[in-house]
Amino acid sequence: MPIEHQPLHDYALPHCEGDILQARDLRFSYPDGHLALKGVSINVCAGDKVALVGPNGAGKSTFMLHLNGILTGQGELKIAGMPVSEKNLPQIRAAVGLVFQNPDDQLFSPTVFEDVAFGPLHMGLPEAEVRSRVEEALQAVDMAAFTERLSHHLSVGEKKRIAIATVLSMRPQLLVLDEPSAGLDPRARRTLINLLRRLPITMLVSTHDLAMVAELFPRTVIMDDGQIVADSLTSEILTDTRLLEAHGLERPV
Fold first, then answer.
1. pLDDT in tens, 131-149
2. CB neighbour list of residue 30: distance below 8 Å, 6 or more residues apart
3. At what angle do helices 156-168 and 186-198 cross, to 10 degrees?
4. In the chain, which end has fewer C-beta atoms inside a 10 angstrom radius, N or C?
5. 180 SS3 class
6. Cβ neighbours, 10 Å, residue 139
7. Does an H or E element contain 25, and which?
8. In Å, how far are 62, 98, 156, 170, 245 from 238, measured between CA atoms?
9. Can you tell me the distance from the alpha carbon of 192 to that of 23, in angstroms, rounded to the nearest whole number?
10. With 0-12 CB in 10 A as exposed, 13-18 as middle and 19+ as buried, what is 162?
11. Phi then psi dihedrals of residue 4, to 5 deg
12. What DSSP string describes 48-59?
């Protein structure tokens, strides 16, 4: 029997019109009939830093893949005021920088420079602008000295930073990351947290790392069984033990 999810709190966030991301009653079923999104509605405004948490199978990754048109469901979805539709995909994919959990899914060129330059080149930018963007993106992730390195020879932490640089070079309005701290040792995790803290960009980050959430993200959204069941201040959600336990989460120590 499906679990009926009811909000377990009455927290309120400041009103937001969703000028960066606006989803209304977004629904999606996979070809096998599995209903992965069951009416997801969310607003994200410029400057928001939002954590998306929940158990495996909650629909987090499915939702994130809608944000740049990899998947398409029913309902309303807008990025920077543009409907996510086939005709808008080039602009949508420039506006949404999606970073996958496994950086090897994102890095496929021989060198770091070529990986980071890939997006700007396919935007049709002149060579001087491409080089400028690559330099800017690599500096933002503290990897400026790695331009000529072979991407597949880097550590997991270094690959994750390069993967972030590949989307920063397109100057997106929304940075979307899937499990960015997964598989990192403590030093690489701390480096990543410091990087994300200082990036001046709107973020939506799916993660199981609630200690990182507590440190970095003022707002937290909980998804479970294809629905948003909580959306509030991180400080309130992470102290609501009943809410966390109801959705397979543990309060960080």
1. 999 999 999 999 999 999 9
2. 36
3. 20
4. N
5. coil
6. 13
7. strand 21-29
8. 24, 26, 29, 34, 11
9. 28
10. buried
11. -90, 115
12. -EEEEE--TTSS
**How many of the other CB atoms lie within 10 Å of CB of 79?**
27
Relative to beta strand 49-53, strand 202-206 is parallel
- In 3D, which of 51, 57, 54, 82 has the Cα closest to residue 69? 82
| Upper half-sphere CA count for residue 228 (Cβ side, 13 Å) | 18
CB 80 within 8 Å of CB 20? yes
Residue 46 sits at the vertex; the CA angle it makes with 252 and 171, to the nearest 5 degrees, is 100
| Measured distance CA(231)–CA(253) in Å, rounded | 21
The total of other beta-carbon atoms located within 10 Å of residue 203's CB is 20
Q: Which amino acid is at 171?
A: R
Q: What pLDDT digit, counting tens, does each position of 166-224 carry?
A: 999 999 999 999 999 999 999 999 999 999 999 999 999 999 999 999 999 999 999 99
Quick one: DSSP state of residue 189? H
**Angle (deg, nearest 10), helices 112-122 and 156-168:** 20
